[in-house]
Design brief:
This protein is mainly β. It contains 1 helix and 8 strands.
């Protein structure tokens, strides 16, 4: 990835914005060539019974991949994402999120994302996304 200046902050981002009162407020960090984060869903994130809505899991994965670029000062947008859910996520189960670059070709960056249970490492969901650089 080329060096790029920092881009504007996003305090109201649904997934990572610290000022969004209904957001997930995930704190993402760069760890070498990987972006990581942790998230524990609450009753506000339910789709059915005590099962977390798949859209919440998708939002967390989309943002861990986006933040891999954002935290390096690179502005990009999700162009396409394919997610595979591997197991149900229950309210109160903490997940560990990770995102990494798979490849890059001109303005298209292919990223991989994973959500794993913090307690056991079991895979909750994984995805592959294409981001378009601006």
């Amino acid at each position: 990835m080329p060096d790029a200046p920092m881009i504007e902050p996003a305090p109201m981002c649904f997934a990572c914005g610290p000022d969004n009162p209904i957001g997930l407020r995930i704190d993402f960090k760069l760890d070498g060539d990987t972006c990581t984060g942790r998230f524990t869903p609450s009753a506000h994130h339910v789709g059915f019974s005590d099962t977390v809505h798949g859209g919440i899991i998708f939002a967390a994965l989309d943002d861990v991949m986006a933040n891999l670029l954002y935290l390096q000062g690179i502005k990009a947008h999700t162009a396409r994402c394919e997610i595979r859910y591997r197991r149900a996520l229950r309210v109160g189960e903490e997940i560990l999120l990770s995102g990494r670059v798979e490849s890059q070709r001109r303005r298209l960056v292919v990223l991989q994302g994973e959500a794993r249970l913090a307690s056991s490492g079991a895979l909750v969901a994984d995805c592959e996304a294409r981001f378009m650089l601006e």
